[in-house]
Amino acid sequence: MPDGPRDYYRLLGVRKDATPEELKRAYRKLARELHPDVNPDPEAQDRFKEVTTAYEVLSDPEKRRVVDLGGDPLSSAGAAGSPFGGFGGFGDVFEAFFGGGGPMGANRGRRSRVRPGADALLQVSLTLEETAFGVRREIAVDTAIVCDTCQGNGCAPGTSPRTCVTCGGVGEIQTVQRSFLGQVMTTRSCSACGGTGEQIPSPCPTCGGDGRVRARRTKTVDVPPGIEDGMRIRLAGQGEVGPGGGPAGDLYVEISELPHETFTRDGADLHCTIAVPMTSAALGTDLVLTSLDGDEKIEVRAGTQSGAVLHLRGKGVPKLRSSSRGDLYVHVEVRTPTKLDDEQERLLRELADLRNEDVSVSSRSSGLFGKVRDAFRQ
Predict the structure, then answer these.
(1) pLDDT tens digits, residue range 158-180?
(2) Does 203 reside within a domain?
């Protein structure tokens, strides 16, 4: 490093009053001449680093202000250790202006033949009782597993992968093309080996070189009490084995709760509807309801109206990962008889007379206006 501050303007070949656009044009011109993909001379590479550093400094208003005051913003120990400041390297600067390939020798590298597998999803139908109290269920799973013949390496017994003859094991192919910049090197994945750098001369006869085969397995799933419709249970490492015998993904078991003939579920709460005859609702009665825990005695008090809700605490579904339970709500529907014989009708009319309830339609209230007038008289 020179003893005094570096002359960044001189390095770029611009005046001290150069505009940002002039700085950019000067850097682009020098980059076309000095970039390693165009000019492999070591001295040109050093020069390219210098002009890249100069552009990075002068394009930053704060750093340029330090230069104009006679200082060097990269003179500190921390900045001096990195001649490219805020840029990731001269390749990043070049790509920001021109796009495409970076410095010579930079590449993405070879890809591994062994890659992680995908997750798998399986739906299991359960009854309300099974989701409420939990169940252990055996399920059949069709996924990719490691090939027993080759143990995942994809090679026939007694053989092994070899270095790709096309890319020499690098996994990439570099080509040189002419452009307005001169000779520019580009890199692409090797099509012969798929970017892995290896080829399988004798593929496994069982899996065809993939390292995995599809098979049906039986797995045990422990369904916890209180699980709900649509929830998923994760079985780690039980999904699809990856290419080349790579680690398996996860298996997700999605719960589908079957409709119940009596109850509907709302989270941990249960709802049901019971039909009560008109006379039972008027006089009161006791009914027996079969809940998830067995028979429950339901008291319907005298005078219960249709739409009333009876609340049974703790008779719902156990809450997931909790010792508490939801509640049971019994909705009462009072049934009015639709057909009466002569004796039943006579008895009901006597009851209406005893309760001073007029069940006849008087002549004064016939018609729409009569009904409206009677409504206002009540």
Answers:
(1) 999 999 999 988 888 887 777 65
(2) no
